[in-house]
Amino acid sequence: MNKFLLPLGIFIVLVALLAVGLNLNPREVPSPLIGKPAPAFTVPQLHSPEKTFSPQDMLGKVWLFNVWASWCVSCREEHPILVEFARTGMVPIVGLDYKDKREDGQRWLARFGNPYSIVPFDADGRVGIDYGVYGVPETYLIDKAGVIRFKQIGPITPEVLEKKIIPLVQELNK
Amino acid sequence: MTPELGHFALILSLWVALAQGVLPLVGAQRNQPQWIAIARPATTASFLLVAIAFACLTWSFYINDFSIAYVAAHSNTQLPTMYRISAVWGGHEGSLLLWVLMLAGWAQAVALFSRQLPDAMVARVLGVLGLVMFGLLAFVLLTSNPFERLLPAAEEGRSLNPLLQDPGLVYHPPMLYMGYVGMSVAFAFAIAALLAGQLDAAWARWSRPWTTVAWIFLTLGIALGSWWAYYELGWGGWWFWDPVENASFMPWLVATALIHSLAVTEKRGSFKNWTVLLAIAAFSLSLLGTFLVRSGVLTSVHAFATDPRRGIFILILLAIVVGSSLLLFALRAPKVSLGGRFSLLSRETLLLVNNVLLVVACGAVLLGTLYPLIIDALGLGKLSVGPPYFNAVFVPIMLPLLVLVAAGPIARWKQAELGDIVRRLWPAAVVALLAGIALPMLAGEWHGYVALALALAAWIIAAIVLQTIQRLKAGTGNPPPSWWGMQIAHFGLAAFVIGVAMVGSYEEERDVRMSPGETVTVGGHTFKFLGVEDVRGPNYTAARGSFELSKDGKMLRILHPEKRNYDSSAMPMTEAAIDAGLTRDVYVSLGEPLEGAAWAVRVYFKPFVDWIWGGCLLMSLGGLVAAADRRYRLKARTATKTVATGAMAA
Amino acid sequence: MKRLLALVPAALLSFGLLANEAAPLAEDPVVEQRLVHIAGELRCLVCQNESLAGSQADLAKDLRREVRGLIKEGKSDEEVKDFLVSRYGDFVLYRPQVKPETYLLWGGPFILLVAGIIALVSYLRRRNRLAPDTPLTEEEKKRAADLLKADS
After folding, report:
1. Which of A23, B197, B201, B221 has a CA-to-CA distance to B305 between 20 and 30 Å?
2. Contacts with B54 (C-beta within 8 Å, 6 or more apart), sequence order
3. Is-contact A108 A70, C-beta < 8 A?
4. Sign of the alpha-carbon dihedral angle for B478, B479, B485, B491
5. Is residue C43 part of a domain?
């Protein structure tokens, strides 16, 4: 072996690494919450402030926890997909209205349709912090025991729904 | 028409660059003078064509031609002319064109100022530059054409990112690119020497001034970028270890190693392989930086809008350019002679230690920059590597270097004696010890960190003073400019260390709620808030604050920080106001408006912060003095002939 | 310097110039100082590459508020960092934790340095056995001399 080949060898490893890196998204941060119990909270609901919602209420059910807001642009992109999916009734969808104004949130749902079975209202974003939300929309799939099994960061696409969420829901419902 | 003309000039320059790359190289290998003779005219032609393309783009910006997608995305009729012109390089496509223009410009400079070099050598150098240029032009034309039309044309442009609407944009990128791209000349000389199988002291002598000049630009470019970030970003830091900053810093570290090892190769004929490898590495790191910034593999404050196709293209370009160079190196290096013998303690050894430290530091920065990518690629999750890591690993590697800077220039070539070095430097050690103990106490609190840094700076400065006295006393005449240049640059390094240590240890910062008439004092300087008025700029409205700065009851001046809202952007911009001084900056920036006429205000006292950039300026000045050494400007035709025949024979 | 400067406010007071000192923005400067210290080593998630201390993003403000709360509860720096890591992952730490995945990161520069020194020493030894005593060949010397002659 020629020791002068060493720089070339190092360089080849570097290029291979960069080639792999091109296919990764540096901004997508995986959640450490997967496999952990969904953090507990109790907040009022959007439409009826006197009622509250807590993840405990959903124990025994597989459910989707979607974080959205009226000011969020990509939520609008995601919304029709959720509305359609809600019609199948496969799984209850809880939609947390995150750091929003109550009227804005209500108006938004009235306008674009309401796919949610319950809409909790997180005015100051504290629930969002507990769930590690950093870019709405984000969606969590939570199992019967209240454990987070999947997280989608950014809008749900038909592909994610078909390939990831529906199969997982079916498996968890078995 | 103008954009089509520019586009056409670019396409033409692509093929001229190919001719410039291939024919002279083949000609030089086969010793065909007609083909060798093509190198210079082809270089001039490709330079002129790229310059025409660049001028066309600039003109399109000047006349607000929003039928060009790139212009529409980066300019706007409201934009002041100065920023409209510099917006040419405010985005990916145009800045890449600037890159190519600089490359063509450097090649043209080599063609002009290399009359005394053997024609075959010049042909090889220009050929290598032509090939690199061909690759970059293909990249511009295939993935990043700045002349792409927008149909239908936009009514109004989207304007330039407000962060970039600053004189910083006018001078920072051109300087930095001159440095980045200038490394290509050192690279081309190295490849030419490898191709010719003629790696010797003459090669080192020829490439040394070019390398030094490129290094000067790189130093200035980085320093200006740091200064820009300091006053523009509004939180008073001067270096953030952001991937893009690291991308410019890594070539600098290697280039600094290179200018030191070139000295050994030139003077003593040693370390030839190592020097060549550094020349390849410096340019490779410039290209790597381009890849990191433009491919989107890392997140950064400065990242361009990214496109994976571009990433793949640059990666392929990088693989071809650097891969083939390193292969050539592996084939040719084993045959290169070792050069002169020297003992374990000699200037050669000290310069090698300098090189090892600089390269290790560069390796540490590279590791930290790429580590998130490594972990992600291995599927181990995501992590961040930020300033705390870099400070923790970089500083300790640099400390021994600061110790050696004083000893290196004193040690003799070939064989140095420890006793001699100690005899000549002990007063500097005493000065350093006293400075380390006393200076921090005078400045305020005594910290080990600042004591060490100030002691090292004093050590370097005292050694420079001692050497100068000893050298002048020795009666060997006025030392050559390269010697003075080295001393100035080393003094700049000491000044830089002082700035970093002082501002790091004694800076003060206060965040206050201020109503008109109230005062805040930081570092002995008192700011009195006079109020805020609304002003209208060319393309923004601003709340303009007025602060009366005084010290010891004496009024110094009125400072006007601004909070700007650009018409084209929702993000408010903070324009800090700074009173700069030799021993301190005081810095005030407006935060949010609070109830009534009160504002959130942030004030800083930054002792010696300007020494950071002043130090860099001195380093560049030292480089300039060294590069201007007449011995490197070989004008006499007789020498040309001798060297030429010598080169042929070798 | 600081000691000297400390006298300045007193001097100003005695002249009655110190009209009214502006109030700190933070309710509790001690908490704020710790916040800046901790948040400076944390990454703002929504920004491209900024620390939590420097960012003006909405989420960063919320997180600063949260961290302030934790500090007031008497949590240690480590506990505050754990709070964020358990929600957002290691990504938020600008100073990566030392664990198997980061051994190479933290050890790398040291390994490089040691390897560099070993390579240097072995090179110097080998070289001294191999290198001829004359630094330049006769021909090289001649050319160098020619080059120097060209100066004058």
Report:
1. B221
2. B6, B88, B97, B98, B101
3. yes
4. negative
5. yes
Q: How many whole angstroms separate alpha carbon B114 and alpha carbon B24?
A: 15
> Helix, strand or coil for residue B389?
helix
Kindly report, residue by residue over B504-563, the tens digit of the pLDDT. 888 888 888 999 989 999 988 999 999 999 999 888 899 999 999 999 888 999 999 999
Burial of residue C113 (number of CB atoms within 10 Å: 0-12, 13-18, 19+): buried
Q: For C48, which DSSP code?
A: S
Write down how long chain B is: 650
- Whether C48 is in a domain gets the answer yes
Does some domain include residue C11?
Answer: no
Q: B364 or B511: whose pLDDT is higher?
A: B364
Q: List the strands of the sheet with A138-142, edge to edge.
A: A121-122, A93-98, A63-68, A138-142, A148-153
Residues C125 and C66 in one domain: no
Check if CATH label 3.40.30.10 holds for domain A35-173. Answer: yes
Contact partners for chain C, using 3 or more CB pairs closer than 8 A, are: A, B
Query: Encoding tokens for residue B88?
Result: 């040419």
**Facing residues of B522 across strands?**
B525
Average of per-residue pLDDT values in chain B: 88
- Same domain, residue pair C54 and C106: no
- Closest Cα to residue B254, out of B275, B271, B223? B275
Place of tokens 């959640």: A31
For residue B644, the model assigns a pLDDT of: 39
Summarize the confidence of residues B86-100 as an average pLDDT: 90
Within 13 Å and on the Cβ side, how many CA atoms surround A140? 27
Same domain, C47 and C91: yes
**Predicted ipTM?**
0.86
- On whether both C91 and C109 belong to a single domain, the answer is no
Q: What's B171-185 look like in SS3?
A: HHHHHHHHHHHHHHH
Do C33 and C91 lie in one domain? The reply is: yes
Q: Is the Cβ of A87 closer than 8 Å to some Cβ of chain B?
A: no
**Structural domain boundaries of chain A?**
35-173
Q: How confident is the model at residue B108 (pLDDT cuts 50, 70, 90)?
A: very high
Taking an 8 Å cut-off on Cβ atoms, the answer to whether C87 and A130 are in contact is yes
Q: Which two tokens stand for residue A169?
A: 């829901």
Residue B15 CA to residue B217 CA, distance in Å, equals 29
Contact with chain B for residue A1, Cβ under 8 A: no
Three-state DSSP at B124 gives helix
Q: How many CB pairs under 8 A join A and C?
A: 36
Judged by CB atoms within 8 Å, which residues 552-611 of B form the interface with C?
552-553, 591, 600-601, 607
Residue C32 belongs to a domain with what CATH number?
1.10.8.640
**Whether residue C30 is found in the same domain as residue C85:** yes
Residues C89, A132: C-beta atoms closer than 8 Å = yes
What single-letter DSSP state applies at residue B379? T
The rounded Cα B559 to chain-centroid distance in angstroms is 31
**How many domains are there within chain C?**
2
- Do B650 and C25 make contact, defined as CB atoms within 8 angstroms? no
Q: Give Cα A116 to chain centroid, integer Å.
A: 14
B510, β-bridge pairs: B603
The two structure tokens encoding residue A35: 């496999």
Nearest-CA distance A107 → chain C (Å): 23
Q: Are C93 and C104 found together in one domain?
A: no
Q: Is the minimum CB–CB distance between A88 and chain B shorter than 8 Å? A: no
Which helix (H) or strand (E) segment is B103 a member of?
Answer: helix B92-112
Say if residue C52 is in the same domain as residue C77.
yes
Instruction: Identify whether C36 is part of a domain.
Output: yes
Distance CA B384, CA B299 (A): 10
Contact indicator for B178, B622 with CB cutoff of 8 Å = no
Contact assignment for A33 to C87 by CB distance below 8 Å? yes
Domain interval for residue C114 = 98-132
Tokens linked to B509: 């910062």
Q: C118 at the B interface (CB within 8 A)?
A: no
Nearest CA in chain B to A20: B377
